[in-house]
Amino acid sequence: MKYIVVLGDGMADYKLEELGGKTPLQTAKKPMIDTLASRAEVGLCKTVPDGFKPGSDVANLSVMGYDPKDCYTGRSPLEAVSIGIALADTDVTLRCNLVTVSDEENYEDKRLLDYSAGEISTAEAKELIASLKQQFDSDLFTLYAGVSYRHCLVVKNGKTGHEFTPPHDITGKPVKGRLPAGPLGDVYRSMMEKSYELLKDHPVNKKRIAAGKNPANSVWFWGEGTKPALENFEKKFGLKGGVISAVDLVKGIGILAGMKIVGVEGATGNYDTNFKGKADAALRELLGGLDFIYIHMEAPDECGHQGDIAHKIYSIEQIDKKVVKPLVEGLTAAGEPFRMLVCPDHPTPIAVRTHVSDPVPYLLYASDTQKGCGADRYDEESAKNTGIFVEQGSQLMRKLLSCN
């Protein structure tokens, strides 16, 4: 038996007037997923426990079978592990976004225009981070380059308990009242202000502006955390598992859980990602010895943050056509029985352009039973109408393994 999780990050949504009162999931053409739904358990699941913010860190931990109440120590340390940073027990990590802010003279008067600086390329970002390292690195702070706009600051013997605002929560909004606060709040704010002075006229940004792109003219700190520890996935579930993702956060969870990280050329974390390549890699790994694969696709989430309805629908359709369909057909052709969980980690509604804690629709399919529950489609409304509700996200993994 093979086990697959197809995770469409932020795929769930609210009904939109632009779509005639439907959600992107209801609008998207997804014949394979809907066919599976008619032969599967479809319901709603609460992936974000009470008291936790609806981040991809908490929600993906839940779907992967880990209770955040037992193991969550923050978002940025998961990303730090993926980047290859060796953390000490006393280190504190912060996520460091390269962002676009407006040009008011006082930093507090600025607005956050783009949380990803126009999806800046990794090559450009590394050049900018290298410039900042010359000014920021010290006995206390070390800045590390990651992928695209996602980077990491490590604070030696740091303190936690700060107030941070995720930049994707305030796109287009003033930064005043949303800047870091707490023991080192003044220091973090000062570094953010200094980054603007260092980056606004950087050659990389001059080229981006000339090309009509958003400049990466500031850093934005958030996602505080400390060194985490996860129980080994194979020991916990008895399965040799792997993770396919373009996102450091999800790869970090996989690394900490002792899972195989499967690289895919052209995986970008957006709607232009190599969907087919992810499916091909998953099938190859499953038929080559792995028992379990977690395929994470960031595209619907990024489109939700950007308010991009068309590409969110497109991303869902690509997941159906280029990921779910070839996996089902490939495993069936190989005579390999399998169980598949299709779900988002959390909703990222177009209307609010950020994460929410609402329960997510899930589909749980077993090729050896094909036992339906009355649903004929997979979407938010169909999942609600079945009346099936899973109160704790980490229970989904147990349901996948037992399909009962």
Characterise this structure.
The protein is an alpha/beta fold. It has 2 domains: 2-72 and 230-402, Alkaline Phosphatase, subunit A; 82-226, no CATH class. It contains 15 helices and 14 strands. It has helices at residues 24-27, 31-37, 56-63, 68-71, 76-83, 122-136, 185-199, 203-210, 233-237, 248-256, 275-287, 299-306, 309-333, 380-385, 395-402, and strands at residues 2-8, 41-45, 92-101, 111-114, 141-147, 150-155, 173-174, 218-226, 241-244, 260-261, 292-297, 338-343, 360-366, 389-390. Strands 10-9-11-1-12-13-2-14 form an 8-stranded mixed β-sheet, with helices on both faces. Strand 9 (241-244), helix 10 (248-256) and strand 10 form a beta-alpha-beta unit. It is globular. The chain starts with a strand and ends with a helix. The mean pLDDT is 96.
CATH superfamily of the largest domain: Alkaline Phosphatase, subunit A
- Provide the helix percentage: 25-40%
User: What structural category arises from helix and sheet content?
Assistant: alpha/beta
Number of strands: 14
Task: Give the class-level CATH name of the largest domain.
Answer: Alpha Beta
- What value does the average pLDDT take? 96
Please indicate the percent range of residues in DSSP E strands (runs of 2 or more).
15-25%
CATH architecture of the largest domain: 3-Layer(aba) Sandwich
Give the helices and strands as they follow along the chain. EHHEHHHEEHEEEHHEHEHEHEHHEEHEH
Terminus-to-terminus distance: 15 Å
